[in-house]
Design goal:
Blueprint lengths: L9 H18 L5 H25 L4 E6 L5 E5 L4 H27 L4 H27 L8 H21 L2 H29 L10 H9 L3 H24 L20
Length: 265
């Protein structure tokens, strides 16, 4: 079967490729991690938010959500039954990958990049307010608030930055930022899953991870869960890219992008 990128998708695909190329190039530049650090923290919020939201959707309780300076995060929830545990534990990595895929679909399917940036700001602020502050206070989980100062400061910085970009950035810059966020979500999720894969090896030291939690709950080796999440991640990415490059109805053209006219080839 031949695979062809739709003409009207080529300019946006170019923007996505530039964002991906920049993300990969920064891996090889000394101290470039300083530039990508805010994006890493953003992805951690999405990862932990995935755990929290799925816990709520499965009828469980969230005690707290926090993000640490090293880019790690913790979300404490009740686990419920086996199905709930499976969904909650899977929601971190799959959630980050799905969010990145969602960003790609939104900017492709006639959603203004500024709206996507503003919505992301609201999401980060909401996750922090509800699960990082209100829930620990009302549940009496005072010990869970140790990571609250950095979590709150990081959430304020990210929310303000995203709102500022939504308000003041040009359409082209806003689109690039959304593409870069999408790439960062995908690459960080895949990088974390690679780490989980090696930590789940029978020869690795016993480090608490989502895969280990699933192994303890089901008796299925952690490495099986790591491979399952990796495969699921690539499936999600493949579906998103398929949606991203197919032709779009001209009546639903993107109002916020300078990419609506197809290129002559």
């Amino acid at each position: 079967m031949k695979f062809r990128v739709s003409d009207d998708a080529r300019p946006q695909a170019t923007t996505l490729l530039l964002a991906a190329a920049l993300s990969i190039a920064l891996w090889f530049i000394p101290f470039a991690g300083i530039l990508t650090y805010p994006f890493r923290i953003f992805v951690t919020f999405i990862h932990e938010g995935g755990h929290a939201l799925v816990a709520v959707l499965t009828g469980n309780t969230v005690s707290s959500l926090s993000v640490a300076m090293d880019g790690s995060g913790e979300t404490y929830t009740t686990n419920g039954g086996l199905i709930s545990q499976l969904l909650i534990s899977s929601a971190g990595y799959i959630g980050a990958m799905s969010f990145g895929a969602l960003l790609l679909v939104l900017i492709r399917r006639a959603t203004a990049a500024r709206i996507v940036l503003a919505g992301s700001a609201v999401l980060i602020a909401g996750l922090t307010l509800i699960f990082g502050i209100i829930k620990p206070l009302f549940s009496g989980s005072w010990s869970m608030l140790s990571g609250a100062p950095f979590t709150i400061l990081a959430a304020i910085f990210l929310s303000v930055a995203l709102f500022a970009a939504a308000r003041f950035a040009s359409a082209k810059v806003a689109t690039f930022l959304v593409s870069f966020l999408a790439v960062q979500c995908v690459l960080n999720a895949l990088g974390d899953l690679k780490t989980i894969f090696f930590l789940s090896s029978p020869w690795a030291s016993n480090v608490p991870t989502d895969a280990v939690n699933m192994a303890n709950a089901t008796g299925i080796p952690a490495i099986v869960w790591a491979v399952t999440w990796i495969v699921a991640g690539f499936v999600i990415l493949g579906l998103a890219m398929r949606i991203y490059v197919v032709a779009r109805d001209s009546k639903s053209s993107q109002p916020d992008l300078p990419f609506d006219s197809p290129l002559d080839v």
